[in-house]
Write a structure and sequence with these properties.
The protein has 317 residues and is mainly β. Helix content is 0%, strand content 46%. It is globular and about 45 Å long. The C terminus is likely disordered.
Length: 317
């Protein structure tokens, strides 16, 4: 089943260079403008993304001086986030400097940055990295355990996106956008140990690049297709079962909440951006999905914490 581009509404008047990381949390949509290091949120309304009087602007939530790839809420700490940003992973608090848990890509042989990220149901944070120039095989997947320790669990990735989990936390889905490939890994929910990669979906040239993803309450995987102006739904066996057209090509992430499907889009890498490029869009949907899973730290997150000094200004565009 393919659904056309009608029905999409702008959830705010703004246009973003590289909107990414859509997450539904506490009845709001959160997303990043990646290269600007900015976290925003929107309240599109419970039923209508275009309420009377027109859509309001986004609310700024955080701003860093490094690229901000994606965030997840911190359990029991309203307004606090764990973030994949710059060369590593940081805790973000209102009115405070970032507390850097790890900076594994600092000092790498080539300029690197963190990209997409999400938490599993057990409360661990999984974050990807990539080379600033998208050099083949330079990226990694990191797991941040509840004690705050970070370890590299996969290497050889190019543009890794959408680390997302099924409802039981027993399957990880991971896209390598540059290769047009989505794989799945069995996960031990207790330890976070990964099994070997299993091919899930391979996209053909012209179908777009798999970018941000989410898993709905039926266990199906939704994939934003960069360059194709599409969002696809695959069943747990990797069979295509639905496709929704989006009125701009660079669709970067997808989320569900408040009776709506939400997508972020980008002006990035478009020589002549169209009028909807960079918009955050929404349409009514009967699909439901869990809200963003939180990071559940086992260490205290109250009061001042020691932190790395801020990273050097990034060599990114």
């Amino acid at each position: 089943m393919t659904v056309g581009t009608e029905g999409w509404q702008d959830t705010c008047p703004d246009r973003f260079q590289l909107g990414e990381g859509a997450r539904w949390h506490a009845d709001r949509l959160y997303f990043v403008d990646l290269l600007q290091g900015a976290l925003h949120s929107l309240d599109p309304g419970p039923d209508d993304p275009d309420p009377a009087g027109g859509p309001a602007g986004p609310r700024p939530e955080a701003r860093l001086d490094v690229p901000l790839g994606a965030v997840a809420p911190v359990h029991g700490r309203p307004g606090e986030w764990i973030a994949a940003a710059g060369p590593g992973v940081a805790l973000l608090r209102p009115g405070a400097l970032p507390h850097w848990l790890a900076r594994p890509e600092e000092g790498a042989p080539r300029p690197m940055r963190m990209n997409d990220a999400a938490c599993d149901p057990a409360g661990r944070f999984w974050a990807t990295s990539m080379a600033a120039d998208a050099a083949p095989g330079a990226g990694s997947l990191y797991r941040v355990d509840r004690d705050g320790s970070a370890r590299r669990v996969l290497t050889g990735l190019t543009v890794p996106n959408g680390p997302v989990f099924d409802g039981a936390g027993s399957t990880l889905f991971l896209a390598d956008s540059a290769r047009g490939l989505i794989v799945s890994h069995a996960v031990d929910p207790g330890s976070g140990r990964l099994g070997p990669a299993r091919p899930f979906v391979r996209l053909e040239p012209g179908e777009g690049k798999p970018d941000g993803m989410t898993v709905d309450d039926a266990g199906c995987l939704w994939v934003a297709l960069w360059g194709a102006g599409r969002v696809r739904r695959y069943d747990p066996h990797g069979r295509l079962c639905a496709e929704v057209a989006v009125p701009t090509p660079n669709v970067s992430s997808v989320a569900f909440g408040g009776g709506l499907m939400h997508v972020t889009t980008a002006r990035h890498r478009l020589a002549e951006p169209d009028a909807r490029a960079g918009a955050v869009l929404a349409r009514r949907s009967g699909v439901t999905a869990p809200p963003a899973a939180p990071f559940r730290p086992s260490f205290p997150v109250v009061g001042p914490l020691p932190s790395f000094p801020p990273p050097s200004p990034p060599p990114f565009p």
